[in-house]
Design goal:
By secondary structure, this protein is α/β, with parallel strands linked by helices. Helix content is 38%, strand content 16%. It is built from 7 helices and 7 strands. Strand 3, helix 3 and strand 4 form a beta-alpha-beta unit. The radius of gyration is 15 Å and the shape is globular. 34% of the residues are buried.
Length: 180
Amino acid sequence: MPTGIVFETHSWSEDNDRGIATGWLPGRLSERGRQLATELGQRRRDDGIAAVFTSDLRRAAETAEIAFAGSAIPVLHDWRLRECDYGTGNGMPGAELHEHREWYLDQAYPGGESWRQAVERVGRFLTDVPTRWEGERILVIGHVATRWALDHLIDGIPLEQLIAADFGWREGWEYQLQSP
């Protein structure tokens, strides 16, 4: 029986306001981000969600804390849902870091990881999901690497296509994870 996965990005951060590529740095939500997190909770609390999984990076964890404050839905933190580790590029201007993003599809950022390594890391999380949540509907709060992993590993979209496209934010993506 497939597991329904709803993916939402972490809410808008102070680094988003400044055009910074946060990467593995914690980041903090901006005032706008806190409002968006509240809206996420209003949108998803009664959406049949059995559990919320979030990256352990502060901006994602804060999104989940605000969205599901006072809710009985369990919120579980998992480091495997983190953004790509840009290594020495964590915290640099996003436009500069991502100018040649395709160079880092298979080659690691200096001191960090490649996009493919980040997707494989999220894939290890996906392997574990059916162990406890098979047939349930879960929410995953993460980052670009998290969504690319879902698009690639569940929907079969080539990473080469994902890395060349704009992110295209929206209110949630839906996936069906088939059990092995």
